[in-house]
Structures
1.
Amino acid sequence: MEARRTDFLVGVFILVTIGIMVGTVIITSGLGRVQHVLYMRTETAQDLTSDTRVYLQGLAVGRVRQVYPQVDSGPEMAFQRMTDPAFVDATQAVDMILSGAEHASVYRFLENQRRRAKQADSTLWK
C-alpha cells in the first residue's frame, strides 16, 4: 500500500515538473504575442542597422529587422513591434502616430496614461 502511494506521488511530481517545463518553453518562446511589421520612411538612416532597438518615449517597442535604402525616395526601414499586455499604451501610441496623429496629442495620451497608472498604483495599497 505504501509503495503505491509513493509511486503515485512520484508520478504526480514528474507530471508537474513536465508541465512547468512545457509552460516555461511556451511563455519564453513568444507564443501568443501579436507581431506587426511596420514600414517607415526617413530622410537619413545613418547609424541604423538591423536589430537596432526602436524606442517611443523611452519605451522599447520593437527592433529594426532590415534597412532598404532607396535612392529616389530615401531609406526605408521595417521594425517588428511586439504587442505585449504590459506595453499596451506604447503600442496604442505607435498606432496613433502611424495613423497620422500629431506628436503632441500622442505625448499627451502617454502622459495621461502614466498619470492614471500612478494613481492606480497609489490607490492599490490603500
Note: The chain has a mean pLDDT of 78.
2.
Amino acid sequence: MTPRSVPEPVASPGFDRRAFLLRSAGTLAVSALMGPPRDLSRLLQGRERELRLHANENPLGPAPSVLSAMRDAVQLANRYGAREALVEPETLEAQIASREGVEPSQVVLMHGSTEVLTTAAAAWGAGGVSSLAPSYPTLLAYAGRLGHRLSFVRPSTGVSLELDALRADPATPRASLVYLCNPDNPTGRVHHADAVVALQASLAASAVLVVDEAYFEYAEGTAGYRSMVELVRAGRRVVVARTFSKFHGLAGMRLGYAIAPTDLARTLRARHAGPPNVVGVVGARVALDDRGFANTVRRDVSDARTAFRTEMEAARLPVSMGPTNFAMVRLGERLGVVNAALRQESIRVWSEPWPGWMRMSFGTAEETARAAAVIRRAVAG
C-alpha cells in the first residue's frame, strides 16, 4: 500500500464483542509464534496479570475498524510526521471542524490533551490560574512549575463542585487563566452548562477559560451538559481541550486537540511541538465515524457504572460519579486498608486524589466486579 492509499474513515454499523475478542486472541497467538523480543513478551504477560483501573483507559482498546486502519498506516512509520507521510493533519482538523461547526483554523492537533493543557498554562497562565479542587492536576501542576500563582476553591462539603463559589472567589476575576474540567476528573460529575457560561462571562476580558473535555463523549445527552465549543463559536476567549485517549482507546497514540477562537488557536499552533504521529492520525479519522463501537463503549460503561454503584451501596460506601468511565469512593480511615488489598491483588487505582477518597476506572464487567469484590472484602475485613 502506498502512502496515498491510506483508507478513508469507514464507520462500522455495529460491534461484535465476541468476534473482536476472538480476533484479538488470534492476533496475540500469531505474535507469539513470530517471536517478539523477550523483554516485550514478559512485559505483556505482566500487564495481563495487572488490572489497570487507574488511568481511565478504555478496556476494549481501539475499535476493530481503527485497528485495521492503523495496521495499514504502520507502513508509513519510516516518514517524519504526518505531513511528510502525505497523511495531512489538516485533514483530521477539517473533519473535527466540520463536526463541531467551527473553521479548520480553530482546531489544533496536539500530542494528547496533555500538550493542550501545558501549552495553555505557558501561554496564558502568567497572570494567575484559578480552578476548583479537586480537579485534574496536569495544567495546574505545570503552571506551578512555571512559577504561576495558583488559586483553588475547595468544596464546602464532600467533593461538591461549586462554580458559584469559583465565580465569587476574589482571585478569579484577577486570573489570566481559569481551568475547568467538565465532566470533572476525579469526581466524574458534570457542571451545568449555564453555570459554565456564567463563569466565563464573569472573567476579565483578557482572561482565557480552558475547559478540559477529555470525557465529553460519555456526557453527551446528559441533562444540563453541553460542550463549551458553543462559546468558541460565539467568539469568547475559551479553549476546549479534548483527547482520543479515553473514549476512543488511543491513549498510546498520544493524540488530542484544541478547539479555540482563531487568535488563541494561532498561539497554540505556534507553541506546540510539531505534527502528530502518522498512525494516530489515521486511527483518529476512523474512530470519529465509528458509531457502532461508540454505542458499545457507552453501553458497557453504563452497565459497569450501575453495577459498581450497587456494590458500593451494599457496602455502605459513598460514591461520587457521573456519566464518565470512573468513580470516586469515600473510604475515610479505611483508605489504606483498601489500597493495600487492591495492591495485593495487582489492581491499580488512583489511591487518593482527595483526602479519604479513592478513584477507580471501570474495566470490563468482570474486571469491575473483581475490583468491587476486593473493596467490599477489605472494608468488611
Note: Residues 1-13, 17-34 have pLDDT under 50 and may be disordered.
